[in-house]
Amino acid sequence: MPYVRSRKFCCCLPVRFGVFCESILGLAVGGFFSVVAWIEINKFMHGQLQDLSQSDKTALWVVAATMTFAAVTSFLGLIGAIGRVRPLVAIYATVLTGVTVLDIIGGIYLIVQLFHGYGDDQVKKCQDQADKGAQGTVDVEHWACSEGFKVGRTILVVVYVIWWLIEIYGCVIAFGYVSQLNEEEEAKNSDREKNQSQNVTIVTQPAAAFGQPQPYPFSQSSNAYGPQGGQY
Known about the structure:
Elements: E1 8-9, E2 13-14, H1 15-45, H2 54-83, H3 86-115, H4 117-131, H5 138-199
Antiparallel strand pairs: 1-2
Helix pairs in contact: 1-2, 1-5, 2-3, 3-4, 3-5, 4-5
């Protein structure tokens, strides 16, 4: 097989190793959450969970389906990384990109809610609880509700941004390995065509004109015997 330079990430690690680790992590996380979600679905389908609302049930179905899909895709990526199977790695990279985009969209929506409607409601609930307590500490508890929520909201935003950067970098690693496999396939095809062209031997033989008699070999002067041919 012709040599193709291995692409790296984090300065020294090969992208194949990165896809291998990503797929194992996705298989573990997706498998865990999908199993938990399917267990909960089985419980409420058999009447064991009566206090779930319709939105909670819908959320369980969505989590179970998406996590199962993520686990299956990660398994395909793991096989592709181990066996250098380009189509499987390409599928894994594409799905990983789609999941990253959906995760970013969902995270942005959650952050907007934290800074507007949902966040204000949570602060108001906290302050209402403070009003029911001791009157001497109401102002302090109101301040704690407001400032505590702001700090928690900021931490959540930072965590989300870091996680998005990790996901985006994971997509870059996966597509980097796809590009490396493409280069290896192209180099292999080029080397195969080169070997085939070297093994082909072209044999040429002059063709006699149609209808033209060929000379008798012993009539030539070099093959003739006698005084004319110079041989005795």
